[in-house]
Amino acid sequence: MAIAIRFSTRSDVGLVRANNQDSAFAGDRLLLVADGMGGHAGGDVASALCVASIAPLNNQTFTSSNMLERLGDAVENARIDLVEHARATKTLAGMGTTVTALLLSENNLAMAHMGDSRAYLLRDGKLTQVTRDHTFVQHLIDTGKITEAEAEVHPQRSVVMRVLGDFELDLTPDLSIREARPGDRWLLCSDGLSGFIRFETIEQTLRDVADLELCSEYLIQLALRGGGSDNITCIVADVLDTDQPDPNFSPEMAASRANFPVAQAVGSVAYGDHLPQGIDSAESAAQAAALLRIAHDQVQEVIAQAQNRVDHPDQPEQQLGLSDAAQQLPAAASAAVATDFDDAEPATENKKASLGRKLFNTFLILVLLAGAGLGIYSWGSKQYFLGVYQGNVAVFNGFPQSLGPLHLSEKIEVSQVAVDDLPAFVAKQVYSTIRVDSRAHAQERIAQFAQDIADQSQPEIEPTTDPTPTPGATPAPRTSVPAATEPSPEGQ
């Protein structure tokens, strides 16, 4: 039995962020998602460096006995690259990235994981979260201090305790080996997807949408509908027995995917699509080499852009587009996937009938768009989030983004809580907007913010030992000392 993987990759900047700090790689042996952090200048660099360091594994040979060691070494090399770049460029100091990777060899998959990007496995119609988040709230769950439901709205849910970066800490990834079983479907994603879609919805989508391209696109759209305030990246991959026919593959699907280049770089995402039939091994090798060249060039471009943002903050950003990446492909690879469907119309078809069909399709699209717009407006009227208005925490109704001059949200309440009085990590979340279930829930969060500020402003009173009373003297009144609270670990 020969095992292979077929996959689809998508990434979206989201509805709030100005740039995409996620990176990903997908090839016939390696799947990888990295979510960068470290501010406007460092997150995209960190994730791109991680991808560029680990991606060469896709073209290397190894066995099931040494694959885990090779993957662990690649992650360590990525950490060294991050340290060297951070020391060479002061503006990149403190950058880091999550990493979740799967490496295929024979009938096994090696996994490396750090941070809160996730890997899910759909097997026999049942979804399982394979990775465990390296976050503060997960630590609280593991120690029984909060429930999973409480973790979803915990103010420190974004604090990551283990990432790949230039920190003076000995942090290592979780490493494991798993069976590559035909029929399995894997999902690797950043928290911009898992944080905005319910587990049950992810399970249903992976189970019911057989086509990989549609499945990955649906997941991105669901995350956007859920709020989309973070970058969103996902890889959906099927494990196949190449000796058996693929039940989710048909000639129609192959034709629909022919428009996708074999190697692509979109934003900070580099990946290789499955090869069309008829591509020989020599061409496949050339395409794989081109893919790695794109990943390397992508990293250099991202680093240059980050430095340019620091030196010239007023200049508009530029990112590599699909056309830029496609131009870097060898001619044979480009020709293998170039298909002009506009010229595929049969010569015998009546032109009037074709025009009528196009008009009808246009009308149908307009009707669908109008219906979708009404549905989104109705759904948006029930959405609430916390944001900032004139320096104070405010409640908004709608979506936290704008379309040109059109704002998709409305301010409905401004509190007396000043954002600058909040802890730094909470203030950062408010500036990025915090999604809430209802207006009442928003008011509860604001009341909690106010209480936290009041608690912090109360001076601590040191306990004293009562002296031995003097005969005839009036004893001093006792002072109650609040119980000390358990210190929380600092997030990175």
From TrEMBL:
This is PP2C family serine/threonine-protein phosphatase. GO terms for molecular function: protein serine/threonine phosphatase activity. Keywords: Membrane, Transmembrane, Transmembrane helix. The keyword Thylakoid does not apply. PANTHER family: PROTEIN PHOSPHATASE (PTHR47992). The keyword Translocase does not apply. Residues 6-239 form the PPM-type phosphatase domain. CDD domains: PP2Cc (cd00143). The chain crosses the membrane at residues 359-380. SUPFAM superfamilies: PP2C-like. Residues 451-492 are annotated as: Disordered. It comes from Jonesiaceae bacterium BS-20.
